[in-house]
Design a protein that fits this description.
Rossmann fold, 2 domains, alpha/beta, two-stranded antiparallel ribbon, 41% helix
């Protein structure tokens, strides 16, 4: 065997050991861990990929253990939401992030339940990225956008601005909206943002397979009459529910989106659907197009797509750690800059934040980080 052939085989053997996991992550450089993840995801079948996705988000439900926190940051609740953020709780996460929640159980600054006079309020329903998991309180995209809009409105003679963050980690779209309906309407928002990622696809299906056999979720208005329409009822097995819900996964997420838009419309409140990216997660173009089409058909006031915010950038520079899909402070700053710029051009916000000419000004996010 030639020296070239032997060297080539040695290289192949090393790559197999690294990518195949023979060398554990703790002994491999971070670049190798990321390479392993990328290569494995590309070699996976779609079914394997979805199983990995399901496992990640199911583990995220137990947020304290998933992120190695020094205590649970969530408390269990006996309803569709499964758990919610612990109110008035402070800690420092092992990644070094400062974590605080207010008395209403929001990872946000203290607010009054009733809206102060002369104040414009946005309210967001979102997931773990929306809640800023992995970064300091002030460095998520929501507080960055809030500070930027507040400064911009003040400079232009507009009202005080408050951006209330009702995001909850590890929650499907239906769970997000169930939580929002229970707590957010009391705060009198003027505009609602519904934050989504491509993980919305199939997320409610995965949670309902676990919850429906326990009698949870059947009476939630989030899903309308979908269960009746697809022919499932209490007393069946998880396998029965999984088969039925998987076959109707797009109809399921569509029903949730329609409920969100209809609830807001009934209250006369604009609702913006905002699609954000996850770090290092490949997306099928067909799924991306279908999700956008579904959101547009659901009746939202506006569909905002900033899922390309990380395009062309190295995921290693954007994730809180190599094996996690949550953005770090830089990743959140990029999201904030894009979202801030988009919001300034939304006609839904003009009655609250000033004349149309004001919306042509650039984002203030960079100066507020």
């Amino acid at each position: 065997m030639s020296h070239f052939s032997f060297s080539a085989l040695s290289l192949v053997g090393t790559l197999i050991a690294l990518v195949g996991g023979i060398i554990p992550d703790r002994y491999a450089p971070q670049e190798v861990v990321r390479l392993r993840e990328v290569l494995q995801s590309r070699l996976m079948s779609k079914a394997d990929y979805e199983r990995m996705e399901r496992g990640y988000y199911e583990e995220l439900l137990d947020t304290g253990r998933r992120l190695d926190t020094p205590g649970q940051i969530c408390v269990d609740v006996p309803d569709l939401r499964e758990s919610i953020l612990k109110p008035a709780y402070s800690t420092i996460l092992p990644v070094g992030a400062i974590w605080n929640t207010n008395a209403m159980g929001m990872r946000d600054q203290p607010y009054t339940s009733s809206k102060p006079r002369g104040t414009f309020r946005l309210a967001m329903a979102g997931d773990s990225i929306g809640v800023g998991l992995g970064v300091d309180d002030s460095r998520g995209f929501e507080p960055l956008v809030e500070r930027s809009l507040r400064k911009w409105s003040k400079e232009n003679g507009g009202p005080a601005v408050e951006f209330l963050n009702f995001a909850q980690p590890g929650k499907s779209p239906g769970q997000r909206w169930d939580h929002f309906m229970r707590v957010a309407w009391l705060t009198e928002p003027d505009v609602v943002l519904f934050e989504s990622t491509h993980a919305d696809i199939g997320w409610d299906e995965r949670r309902l397979v676990e919850l429906l056999p326990r009698g949870i979720g059947w009476d939630s208005p989030v899903y309308g009459d979908l269960f009746t329409r697809i022919g499932i009822k209490p007393g069946e097995t998880s396998a029965d529910y999984q088969k039925a819900l998987f076959a109707h996964r797009w109809e399921l997420i569509g029903q949730v989106y329609k409920t969100v838009a209809a609830d807001c419309r009934a209250r006369g409140i604009p609702c913006l659907w905002v699609l954000i990216p996850r770090v290092g997660r490949p997306v099928e173009p067909a799924d991306h197009r279908r999700l956008l089409d579904l959101a547009r058909a659901s009746g939202f006031s506006t569909v905002v797509d900033i899922s390309d915010a990380y395009d062309g950038l190295d995921p290693m520079d954007l994730a809180i750690r190599p094996n996690d899909y949550h953005p770090n402070a830089r990743g959140h700053a990029l999201l904030a800059e894009r979202l801030d710029g988009k919001l300034r051009h939304q006609t839904a916000l003009r009655p609250f934040l000033g004349a149309a000419s004001h919306f042509q000004r650039g984002s203030n996010v960079k100066g507020l980080q």
